[in-house]
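Morning, I've got a small favour to ask if you have a moment. Here's the protein in full, and shout if anything looks odd to you:
***
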Amino acid sequence: MLTELRDGVWWYDCTGVNAYLVADGDGVTIVDTGTPFDAATVENAVEAAGFDLGAVDRVLLTHYDLDHVGAAAKLAIDAPVYVGRDDAPFVAGERRPRLAGGKSLLQVAVGPLVPDVPDGRVHPVADGDEIGGFTVYHTPGHTPGHVAYVHEDRSVALVGDLVVERDGALRPSPWFISYDADRVVESVGRFAATAPAVEALGMGHGTPFEAGGGDQLADLAGSL
């Protein structure tokens, strides 16, 4: 099901995870791609929003996890793929996660299910980079290279697994699925303090906020 959160911003369900589509004067952008089994879901969402697959200009990934990057290499598009600098080598298949706790153990276990994005398509991004209408915010903790993307003109922040939504409230990414829970908390606070105020807030898990999302995130940061 495709839900328009704001003008030109859509949310849709993949397999147990949210993904997003944004259209603006800089083109059409896919944000996260679901699991390796969700390529058709992503492609159908693009077409349901009224675009041809060839109109997709870029794919933005919030981080390297099976349920966020899994279909990136399977989509019938050849657009560039952007991902945080520390996670980019995993998306491109240049490196594999090393065992360093429960989170990396999960990544190692499911890694063979995630196809590598072909050479030359993966572009590392860093804090403050601008891609189309988006600004990149490095938000490490859930993974070392986790990033959030803010589109100020569309008043939306797409924050991956920096936070989760449960029963209308936000919580930081749980410790048992994060590399560093303390850094998650630091990232929530820094992002809330430095990112522009937005109405819509889209996370990987839970129901996105169509309005008041920035306030919800600020409230969470103030409670940590």
Summary: The helical segments are 39-48, 66-69, 88-91, 102-110, 181-194, 213-223.
